[in-house]
Amino acid sequence: ALSAPPSDEQHWPRLWSEFLSGNNITAVACIASALRRGIVDKTEQARYELTASNLRAPFEIAGLGEWVEGNLKSNRVLYFHGTH
Question: Are 68 and 37 in contact (CB under 8 A)?
């Protein structure tokens, strides 16, 4: 939610949020990856006594159990993994 790319670049977080919301697609971020990158929702904000949350809607933070359950109930899963 705090991303602010230069005006001549695509605002990918906003575009993804609009796409997901407009198509009623669930977006789940791995809790371990999100916390490592400083991305927290209201629950994690309270848990770690942080001053703010910054997870952009409609994204949700969840653990491995929810990912496994989602795989069992879905006919498609998109997984993004970048290399540095």
Answer: no
